[in-house]
Amino acid sequence: MNPSRYLTAFALMLSGCAGEPQTYPSLAKRPVESAPIAQPAPPPLPVEADAALNAELAKYVAQADKGRTAFDAAYAKAQKAVGAASGAAVSSDSWVAAQVAISSLEAARNDSVSALASLDTLYVQRTNALADGKARGGLTEIETARSATLTSVDQQNDRIDAMKAKLRQP
Question: What is the rounded CA–CA span in Å between residue 5 and residue 7?
Answer without folding.
Answer: 5
